[in-house]
Amino acid sequence: IVEDIEEILGIVPFIFTILRDRPDIFVLSTIADYKTSRPKSLDPKTAELVTIAAAAASEADSCLKVHIGAALKEGVSRDQILDTLLIAAMIGKTRILASSLRQFRDACGVE
Question: Which CATH number, 1.20.1290.10, 3.20.20.60, 1.20.1260.10, 1.20.1260.100, labels domain 41-111?
Answer without folding.
Answer: 1.20.1290.10
